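Chapter review: from sequence to fold.
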Amino acid sequence: MSAPAVIDYEEHWSSSVATYKSHPTSRHRRRFVMERLRRIKPRPGMFVFDYGSGPGLLLEEIKSAFGLPDADLGGCDISRTGLEKARQRLPGGKFFVGEFPELERPIDVAITSEVIEHTAEYRKVLQWMADHLKPGGDLIITTPGGTMDPPDEYYGHIQHFTLPQLTSILEDLGLDVQVARYWGFPFFTLQKWVTKKNFDSIRDNYMHGELDWKKRLIFKATYYAYFVHDLVSKGPQIFIHAHKSRQ
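The token string follows.
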């Protein structure tokens, strides 16, 4: 049986959350978000919203790190399975199915991690987040840069970005870009090349399914090796932190 052309995220979130949580690049993306949040210092009463929250792994980490109540955490996603798991993690959180939810309160910190590459309406997504940010609020983005390969297409990517492209959009939206960097050279760059060359095997053994001892060992070793990427702003991953002026 041939593999599907594009990942089924309902199936993925029903069976592969632990694998996704432990994947080295997933962990480093969350690490970037958490490092920026430690500078922002969210506190109870501030609303943190994850656009494309999936099963709520990042929000759960934010709750633990900063002591925020569930009511100060929220997110949206097109995956109902992902949101069901997010609600199980954060029963009092504000979760919405769909792309442009109606919110009852403004956002203090908006996050979108590995989302805007999936939609042709990425400008509208960024506009929505900028519009819903409080004056003085912050926007944190992670998204792929570099070439589009078959593995990216399998994940549902329809475009990748450059830093000048995204920073220009954010500045047009009235945001001040605090951090904008590439990340992932040399090892994540190598990972993407190996994945492209051996996609079927890597997809079946490392992208889906339960987290077994072999995955755990490989993911852990790779995660620590990837800290070298912090030393140079180069690679196929983009990290951005932008701020909305109080004026």
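Two observations follow directly from the output. The chain is about 45% helix and 20% strand. The radius of gyration is 17 Å.
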